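User: For a benchmark we're assembling, each entry needs the component sequences followed by a predicted structure for the full assembly. Here are entry 17's components. Please fill in the structure.
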Amino acid sequence: MKRLFPILAVLTALLLTYALYQALVVAPTERTMGDVQRIFYYHVPSAWTAFLLFFVNLVASVVYLVWRNPKADALAVVAAEVGVIFCTVVLVTGPIWARPVWGIWWTWDVRLTTTLVLWLIYVSYLVLRRFSDSSQTPKLAAVLAIFGALDVPLVYFSIWFFRTQHPQPVIGGGGSIDPRMLHVLLINWLAFSCFAVLVCWWRYRLERLQREVEEAQALESLLGPGGVPSQSARVKAPLGRGPQ
Amino acid sequence: MKSFWSITLATLSKDIRLEWRSKDALNAMLFFSLLVVVIFSFSFDPNAEESRQIAGGLVWVAFLFSAVVALNQTWARELRNQVLDAYRVSPAPANSLFIAKAMGNFLLVSLLEALMAPLFTIFYNLRVLGPGWQLIPVAVLGTWALVVNGTFFAAVSLRTRSREIMLPLLLFPISIPAIQSMVEATRIILTGDGSARFWIVLLLTYDVVFTTACLGLFETVLQAE
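Assistant: Structure for entry 17:
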């Protein structure tokens, strides 16, 4: 598995370069919006990737709550962190596009608001993980992830009823798109997905290593400098988990 | 073994008795929302039509912020003398404890709303143009929406550093659809501009979904130590 990582890294770099070239040079210029429309090739793939990662976080959280598997919890942290980054990209590129096209930076439209609320929920998820240092943090965070997932449809309905301005989805939603544009979009999506997998993979290894180090340190402080178990450690050591 | 509801009622009456004797939370909440009303009133200085438009938002923001005062002390009180540990080892069902706490907070926030509503009416020259009775289901469902998740997240944030700050950080993002429903329903009823039915149904859905989720997951949170 470790040898696969540099291969994926090189592949991702090549794909990203190719996708950039496709988006900036090959894709046709949109008739009414002009070149600013090209931001679409970054905005939409980032959104898809972010939503996918939040979904991974939800599944990993449920798996953790049911089976208490520490690997699932590490995956949940990683998916939430990387998902927040991609979601930030979506929320930043959106207004840059909206300003020249709609004439406004921001509007309380259904997709914009739902994405923003999703971002807020996952930021609060990361804040909870940061501020809580007991061993029970994974459990509490997994519970919060489930609450967040329940909240999203309600947010969507409330804003949908309120107003909607975002362009209708061009894929699978009645809108039409030039096949060349679709091609570029899909290439960019593939490149972004590879990039997300790469970052998550690296971050996951880091998270696992960090936990191993913390466990080893905890064990060391129990055993004392000479490796001789102290009075309290002799009782506690068999209960604690050693380094894997 | 006592029944589920007798345990719930015992916990609830204990909490009400404690609050009645000190009135700490109630006084703090009343004064806090009074300050919000006064500050909003002179920072916007609205005329009658404008106040009908914005009052829904102001009222609920004031109640939301004041509710956090009550919610924060829900579980913090039980940490002293290891009362919470006693709850954990007792055979009483975890959910009876949760429902008692949520009902206690509901009564406290409802009392606050009943006391503050006349003040709001005076300061903002409010006259209801729509069907006024609908404000009652909005207030009941809205208050429950705030306190059920508030009580739950107060338990979640119990073991974090700076827990008083943590509660609003966890509660507010999740409460956004509920707050929007309350504000919109109140605005529609005050201005008499359309029907508030959609928002009331959405609030009811929110309450049902999150009450179920809280009851399903509270035991996990209570036992997390």
